[in-house]
Protein 1
Amino acid sequence: MVKMLRGLIIFGAGVYTGVYVAQSYEIEKVEDPMVLFQRFQSFVKTKMDELNGKKSD
């Protein structure tokens, strides 16, 4: 019972905070998850290439 009440309080605080931020600030839309994942893969590949290049020097 206590865990459920704690969860509801945290959820309510999160909803309130989200509504407040949405009303008070202009927030850009978040990109599609696949676009973010592709960007992450590209970043990791670039870093791996840099590391492999430094090892062979």
Protein 2
Amino acid sequence: MIDASLDIPRRLNDPPRMFWWDIDVALLVLGAALASMVAGFFVSGCAVGLLLASAYGRAKAGKHPAFALHLLYWHLPAFMTGLKRTPPSYLRELAG
């Protein structure tokens, strides 16, 4: 018999998860595993992916849920973000 309570999320605003990781942390592990599989170093690449995911998970602990988007905005050039109505990230003076 299947327990129907497992299909209902406990909170509606929970971020998407893969196993026990948030999706952005899981994508780091999967991306490193894929890149290492292509390069021929699968086991060591998975270990590096786990270390990267662990460091990123510690860095984003207790921060805004869109921490990854904030990192991308501040560290990528403006033509890669595609944002038209926001000022460039290198302008760091606040009006007011």
Protein 3
Amino acid sequence: MTITPISRTQSGQPWLSDKEQALWREWLLVTRRMESVLAKELLSQSSISYADYAVLVHLSESAEGRYRIAALAESLDWDRSRLSHQITRMAKRGLVRRETCSNDGRGAYVAIEEHGRKIIAEASPGHVAGVRRHMFELIDEDEQETLLHILKKLAVQFTDSQD
């Protein structure tokens, strides 16, 4: 039995055109596989996971080496429960520590430990090489500018003013 697609969804919205559908599916494929490949490479070349790396990058780039947990969860686009579990696992390995917020008893910080700084410094060159190999070596500077322009245009809808 062959199903003939209808030209509109039940809500009246048009279906994606063949070109739109191809673009959307390629977008999904590339983003999933890029993250998967980079995560596997990172784990094989270092002692940390992709999630560890994401947390450590944010902490290591922070002027104080720490973040409010709620702000870090928002920055990573993770729910607080996921971040809390991640912090617990990383703290057991000496990568980060929790700190209380002296001026707000409800708030808490996560801070990078020296061991975390050492690990991120060791893992970063290989990760950057992977990003370069899987992305930037495959697209020229004009394509990079175009892609950046497109991504910024798409990202506007997800800014804080939209929450």
Protein 4
Amino acid sequence: MSDTEFPGTERADLDADGAGRTRLFGGEPKTIQLSLDAGESIPAHTHPGRDIVFYLRSGAVDLTLGDETLSLSPGEVVRFDGDQDISPAATADSEALLVLAESSE
């Protein structure tokens, strides 16, 4: 089957060699593939007005949300408010998928 059989359908390859942050689709919700090397982190930042889903595909990430740090293993999914400080830090080479949706509140 091709995408032309399903109008309005977009397809992305999560196994493509991506480094850093790659936006998978245009428009909403924002969908990001995140690749971090062991020891690499992203400084604390916010995504105001967004609800975020963070799915760790592989590796290990310490995800700091405000004053709390969650140690994530492959297959774990976290949903959180983007108004708080967010900082992922890879403790192993890691791949994650993030969906940033406009908050309904």
